Amino acid sequence: MGKLFVISAPSGTGKTSLVKAVLKNPSSSNTKLGISCTTRKQRAEEENGVSYFFISKQKFEEKIRDDLFLEYAEVFGNYYGTPKDWVHAMLTKGNDVLLELDTQGALQVQKVFPDAKTIFIIPPSYQELAKRLKERAQDGEDEISRRLKEAKKEVKIGKDFDHVVLNDNFEDSLKDLENFLLNEIKLSGPRAELTKTTLVQLLD
Ligand code: 5GP
């Protein structure tokens, strides 16, 4: 059986870029990234069946009824769900599986798979998170303040995950994430201290 990892982060923290970089590491060749179903609109740079399976609300609700999701959640007004069969098939084949979910989803997965390891990525501060969301220019002002509010809720849940990674600069964060995901090495020394202090400030 492969190992199951779930990674969550407030929107704009840089989770997707970090995950992409980890999966380029040759040591991660056994790790498969989950593809979720969603009812949200496809973005210009996305391909159906690669980043997500984009399906209608009706189809999603049918899948809920047929119990085809390992977990599902409503995030920012859209449904997102992890196909159950795919996760089971990968793990049985001996592949490690990495799921990128919101914190509600991560907790639901841990109920079904108590051995699943949860990872939470944090920004250096809410000011920096707001700056990143603005720079991304994907959302309007209202949406950005909604995402920031949500970020605070996510941090309250993510603080208890198995591993917290600080995304202050890409290289260090990637190293921290790879250590945990690929080598199961926990943070120690000054990086561990900095991550802890930042988490405390975010919870203030
Ligand atoms: P986005 O729309 O920006 O791609 O994703 C919004 C949020 O939904 C992110 O936190 C992402 O990790 C989360 N998400 C994506 N797929 C799933 C899923 O299958 N289940 C859950 N619970 N969350 C998901």
Which ions and ligands are bound to the chains?
Answer: guanosine-5'-monophosphate
Share of helix among residues? 40-55%
* Beta-strand percent range: 15-25%
Overall pLDDT level: 94
CATH class type of the domain at 4-34 and 96-203: Alpha Beta
* Order of strands across the main sheet: 2-7-1-8-9
Number of strands: 9
Classify the oligomer: single chain
Describe this structure in words.
This protein has helices at residues 15-24, 57-65, 84-93, 103-112, 126-136, 141-158, 170-183, 189-203, and strands at 4-8, 31-33, 36-38, 52-54, 69-75, 78-83, 96-100, 117-122, 163-166. It has 204 residues and is an alpha/beta fold. The chain has a domain at 4-34 and 96-203: P-loop containing nucleotide triphosphate hydrolases (Rossmann fold, 3-Layer(aba) Sandwich). Strand 5 (69-75) and strand 6 (78-83) form a beta hairpin. The model has no long low-confidence stretch (mean pLDDT 94). The structure holds guanosine-5'-monophosphate. Guanosine-5'-monophosphate (5GP) is lined by residues 11, 36, 40, 71, 73, 75, 80-82, 100-102, 104-105. Guanosine-5'-monophosphate is lined by residues 11, 36, 40, 71, 73, 75, 80-82, 100-102, 104-105.
Key words describing this protein structure:
about 200 residues, alpha/beta, Rossmann fold, five-stranded parallel β-sheet, four-stranded mixed β-sheet, binds guanosine-5'-monophosphate
